[in-house]
Amino acid sequence: MATLDLSEYRELYETAAEETALACTLSGILAAQPKQVCSELVSIDGDILTVAGEQYDLSVYDRVFVLGGGNAAGRVGYELESLLGSRINDGVIVTDDVVELDSISCIAGGHPIPTETAVAGATQLLELADRANEDDLILAVITGGGSALLPAPVDEISLDELQSVTDQLIRSGATITELNTVRKHLSKIKGGQLATIVSPATVVSLVFSDVVGNDQSVIASGPFAPDPTTFVDALTVLEQYDIDIPDTVTYRLEAGVRGEVAETPDKTDPVFDRVYTHILADNHTALNAAADTARNRGYTPIILSARIQGEAREAALFHLAIAEEVVNTGNPIDPPAVLLSGGETTVTVKHDGTGGPNQEFALRAAMSITDPTITVCSVDTDGIDGNADAAGALVSRDTIDAVEQAEVALSKNDAYRVLSHQDAIVRTGPTGTNVNDLRVFVIESDT
């Protein structure tokens, strides 16, 4: 693994615990970056391409195309070009972290709300996908963020309407599964429809998962995966969260319920017979690396869960309760210890403040920490948490000096303002990966 460099974050930490929390966090992000992951799991020997232990003979294919999208897609494309060179005949990738490529068109898109450039990129990808035949190999690059970066709304729905529905669902606190259930039924690409377009080509899917449980149908809304959801499910989600639905969206979903629009393909569809999926990195990739860093620094690490969901501020109190248990009873481990968790918390947005789930998590934790031995770092591994230029925040008992003001900011979904004022914001910029949230609780011995 590449050497961890904390020098550019030197002004962010003052204590050994803060340094350890940051080191664990950054080592987790580093471990999930495409350069690291691909060097371990993707290789070429003559004509034999090996992906996560499975071998594919490139000599039996006429052409190799690279198709995909997501936060990490550009950097995965770079690693594939470095490995395969001229063997790649063509490709299109849409990402918010653009990389200069040779054989692959790397197109800028927006995240988490889809943009015009993302629609244009998705359209270009669809045009290339339509050229594929049974003698071609598709290397599908599917990473977190792909749902927004590969929008391709159906013809009767405008980008503005798709943006409105997406924004409302995100602000409502809907889970990623619920959000993508809707998006799959408003798209030409999602919910296995891209597999239908390229069939009967062979598809080898390289996946970086940002989804709890690694559900392939949810990661980037599953362009090459069977879809277990239906038009009925999509309408149910919109009704559950009382979304202001544009008439065109309602018409589209109701037409699907009536059978006037074909359902997305499910697991019985033969288009998936030649689709081979490999999850190369996920939340555990980051968690395990963070645990190794903690262990190397003399702490006992424990991974609580990679499946934490729900309201961020409530999750913060749950995690803090475990940390306090460690401090007071040594259960489940004795200090010095590092508690780790992943998953994806959400925020029900009621005001127009600046922040995101990890900042709300960190702010609530900072307001509630009473023990000086507890330090917390919480980030989104893609480097962008909510609507702020931040990955998350690093906090301790001493971070917040005006709890009442912090409470007001939290109530207004404005965690960034307080945390930035206290110099607690962690800024990484786009990290080139996306494997969910990463939370680190460092608990020192009480000396």
TrEMBL record:
It comes from Natronocalculus amylovorans. GO terms for molecular function: glycerate kinase activity. Signal peptide: none annotated. Pfam families: DUF4147, MOFRL. Keywords: Kinase, Transferase. Coiled coil: none annotated. InterPro entries: GK-like_C_sf, GK_N_sf, MOFRL, MOFRL_assoc_dom, MOFRL_protein. This is Glycerate kinase. Residues 22-253 form the MOFRL-associated domain. Gene3D superfamilies: Glycerate kinase, MOFRL-like N-terminal domain, MOFRL domain. GO terms for cellular component: cytoplasm. Residues 338-437 form the MOFRL domain.
